[in-house]
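Design job #97: recover the sequence.
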């Protein structure tokens, strides 16, 4: 049976790894990571969210969210 996007995110977090939108796109093939996180939270799954500042390809500081199992 094919895994859903939500299940792929849950499995990733359950493995002890954190995830960002870019990682979700590149490695899990999904565009709407925040939507999958909301779905998991509605089911009672605890997610830790941390905001980070990174430098983008235009040398600008941007803020991202990193999700981990809470």
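Job complete. Output follows.
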């Amino acid at each position: 049976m094919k895994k859903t996007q939500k299940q792929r995110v849950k499995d990733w977090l359950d493995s002890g790894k954190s995830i960002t939108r870019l990682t979700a796109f590149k490695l899990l093939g999904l565009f709407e990571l925040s939507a999958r996180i909301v779905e998991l939270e509605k089911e009672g799954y605890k997610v830790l969210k941390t905001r980070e500042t990174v430098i983008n390809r235009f040398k600008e500081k941007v803020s991202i969210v990193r999700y981990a199992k809470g």
